[in-house]
Amino acid sequence: MVQAPADPRFADGKLFDLENGLVARRIFSDPEIYDEEMQRVFHQCWLFLGHDSMLARPGDFLTTYMGDDPVIVWRDPHGKVHAFLNNCTHRGNRLCLHDRGRATSFSCSYHGWTFNSEGRLVGVPFMEEAYMGQLDVECLGLVEVPKVVSRGGLLWGCWDAGAPSVDEYLGDFWWYYDTLFGDDGLEALRGCHRYSMVGNWKLFCDNFSGDGLHVPISHRSAFAVDATRRNYLDRTSDRFMVQFMPAHGVGALTLGDSGLQADLNRAEELGPEAVEWVHERHRRIQERQKAAETRIAGWVWGQCFPNLNLQAFDSALRGHAFIVCHPKGPDAMEIWQYCLIEKDAPQVVKSFVARTATRGQSGTGLIGIDDGENFERITENMRTVANRDVNSNYAMTLELEGHWPGQEQWPVAGLPGFFGPSMWETSQRRFYRYWASLMGVQA
Questions:
Q1: 443 residues of the chain, pLDDT tens digit each
Q2: Torsion angles phi and psi, residue 439, rounded to 5
Q3: 276 lies in the same domain as 145
Q4: 3-state secondary structure of 400
Q5: Residue numbers of the domain that contains 248
Q6: Could you tell me the CATH number of the domain that includes residue 92?
């Protein structure tokens, strides 16, 4: 992906002044900007589609979105995973009406055109009587996403046939993911937790990209009632933010044996299998880093640009949340939240994870509702005339970026990425700088 040519509509510099940490609030509410970013951002970037374990057998499928385009992700009889635009090529009717399942073909409810899992048009009612045998079925297959790949069990797709590889796109972020889980070490729990939020998709995603400041403030009530979260506030000094090119990041990164004892204390309540699992998982992570100068333990949240958000990668006893923020217009979004866990974790741990997965970040959890209320109030204000040309401030530690007080003492030598303290806005600034480059916006 190369920087888009400058768009004359945005060339006056009024949308961004990132040298001073300023972002115009209009980018969160303007319908014209929203329409443009569906093309320039969501049709150029690699997007998370799901996990291989969701499509374990030939014929397994799931439906999702790439930007605002509905797609079917479908494993064919040869084991290859395809992603197709979820539209019948006859008149554009929605083809698959189900969230997930197994099928050898789908028939359109309008005129009955039928397509197989390789996207081919294999059935047309009244082919001889109505079409006189003249329909060229070979040219009327489903519209296919040109790039679909699996990395470490994660399925990614990209509409841009000329885009760099997913490995290049994920960059150093993948080292952190692979260090925790190795090659395809996870499986998805059944189901997907979905909820709607008022607000632009970027509000949700820049929050996950590196907003450490809001955690002890917005989520104060969660810390007050949930004892397992309280040690977070006591450990901000040994947690780090890390940013990766082009605009990915993780937050509250922990090192070494951090969090191990807390996991063991909780595992004792679940029994010896859970205790053994905590030790084994920690051993594996450390083994993958045996040659490293500094070793990571995990991270609390993260973000892969543009709309994959991650949470709970810091514990052997928490479900790892893959949270996709689907844009639904300039002031609406739908959150699809999947829970993944190590496939060889004991059943007692998987059952515990299933019971507790949505207690924090979810539509009714202790964490998610706080963010939702903030985003809704922000959005209400952004709809007003006076607010449209007011800037949001992302200038935290702008003058200190890259030379933080005490950073020479940070034990992060040899780790990839750009490091910062547990509270910064560098990730958000880089999130918007990359967004601007895709949009052709002067920043």
A1: 555 665 555 545 578 888 899 999 999 999 999 999 999 999 999 999 999 999 999 999 999 999 999 999 999 999 999 999 999 999 999 999 999 999 999 999 999 999 999 999 999 999 999 999 899 999 999 999 999 999 999 999 999 999 999 999 999 999 999 999 988 789 999 999 999 999 999 999 999 999 989 888 888 887 777 666 555 555 555 789 999 999 999 999 999 898 899 999 999 999 999 999 999 999 999 999 988 889 999 999 999 999 999 999 999 999 999 999 999 999 999 999 999 999 999 999 999 999 888 877 877 777 888 888 999 999 999 888 888 778 999 999 999 999 999 999 999 999 999 999 999 999 999 999 999 999 998 76
A2: -85, -10
A3: no
A4: helix
A5: 172-439
A6: 2.102.10.10
Which structure tokens are listed for 309?
């958000």
Indicate the SS3 state at residue 372: helix
Q: Which residues contact 412 (CB under 8 A, 6 or more apart)?
A: 240, 255, 294, 419
Phi and psi of 146, rounded to 5°? -70, -25
